[in-house]
Write a structure and sequence with these properties.
Structural class: alpha+beta
Radius of gyration: 22 Å
Largest sheet: 8 strands, antiparallel
Pfam families: NERD (PF08378)
Domain NERD: 30-147
Order of helices and strands: HHHEEEEEEHEEEHHHHEEHEEEEEE
CATH architecture of the largest domain: 3-Layer(aba) Sandwich
Strand content: 25-35%
Protein name: NERD domain-containing protein
Number of strands: 17
Distance between the termini: 57 Å
CATH topology of the largest domain: Trna Endonuclease, Chain: A, domain 1
CATH class of the largest domain: Alpha Beta
Length: 322
């Protein structure tokens, strides 16, 4: 009996090694998943382009301001902050938000998210101006989306008009664009007078080349924003990967080879040379490597001091900011 239990434990550990990744499992608790879920829905609803995970330089502080996402259409641009606040929310006289999740949890106080979003609008406008994109006054507006289903507020009359509650968020459907548009009043007002196509293209180009967090796309429709550090693995694999640097490469795609249903021992890594042309690198310019699937990516997630390790077998793609 003990031999059977020991054998079963060994088999479980072997299967866990090949088929699971602890760091992938822990991604469930990050905010990146909610952010990209919102971004995907907004792009489909509003027929625009969303730039997520931006790190826009702030000339006043010399630091970089994190912007969850910017929605760009021909009629306007919207800075969107995604908040995972939960519990009963009240707003103090100074504008700060207090989230009370119950007796067992200490109330959490957060800075006014609307004021933060408006500040980010100003920083983004200054950055765009520095890069030669002069937008009409009021063209960039802001919105705050409460994306946590555990959100509940008894002071809904005090919620600013720039805030979309979770209940409102769930009502949005592809065919209900008029409802969605009504919440983005700032961008639409400015959008009544369409900016010229050349300006629209310039705005998209600047945002596509703006500083942003590195991004991992993992199996199970999971995303992680943060900073890529290095590869870890066998010497011949790391040597083959020595040219994968942010100065040279913008995106990687991992394709897996599987035999008879077993976890792949090798993966094919396709990578795109960094290219600042508006149309990006062509398919013929992509290069490929075949390396061990156990090779790891060392990645430090946004707002975390812990470095995570992700096996290539658990990664679908990786994007690197310049």
């Amino acid at each position: 009996m003990w031999a059977e239990l020991l054998c079963g434990l060994v088999i479980y550990r072997v299967l866990r090694y090949f088929f699971s990744d602890d760091d992938v499992l822990e991604v469930e608790n990050t905010d990146s998943g909610a952010l990209f879920s919102v971004a995907n829905k907004i792009e489909k609803l509003y027929d625009g382009k969303v730039y997520a995970g931006l790190r826009i330089p702030d000339a006043d502080t010399g630091s970089r301001e994190n912007i969850d996402m910017v929605l760009v259409t021909k009629g306007g641009a919207v800075v969107i902050s995604v908040k995972n606040f939960s519990g009963i929310i009240s707003i103090d006289a100074d504008g700060s938000w207090v989230c009370n999740a119950g007796d067992r949890h200490k109330a959490e106080r957060h800075p006014d998210p609307v004021a933060e979003a408006k500040k980010r609008v100003s920083i983004l406008e200054s950055y765009l101006e520095q890069r030669g994109v002069a937008l009409p006054e009021g063209y960039v507006s802001c919105q705050v989306i409460l994306a946590n289903p555990k959100y509940c507020s008894i002071h809904s009359n005090h919620i600013p008009s720039e805030v979309i509650t979770y209940d409102q968020w769930t009502q949005l459907k592809p065919e209900a664009k008029s409802l969605f548009s009504g919440w983005f009043k700032g961008g639409l007002r400015a959008g009544k007078k369409e900016m010229q196509e050349s300006i629209h293209q310039r705005l998209n180009f600047v945002l596509s080349t703006a500083p942003m967090w590195d991004r991992l796309e993992l199996k199970g429709n999971k995303y992680v924003l943060g900073e890529f550090l290095e590869f870890k693995g066998k010497h011949d694999d790391t040597q083959a990967l020595r040219n994968i640097k942010r100065s040279k490469v913008s995106r990687l795609i991992i394709q897996k080879f599987s035999m008879l249903g077993f976890a792949p021992s090798k993966v094919q890594l396709l990578y795109s040379p960094r290219d600042y042309r508006s149309d990006g690198a062509s398919a013929s310019e992509w290069k490929e490597l075949t390396i061990r699937s156990s090779t790891e990516v060392l990645f430090q997630p946004q707002n975390s001091t812990k470095v995570r390790k992700f096996k290539l077998s658990s990664i679908l793609s990786m994007s690197l900011s310049a």
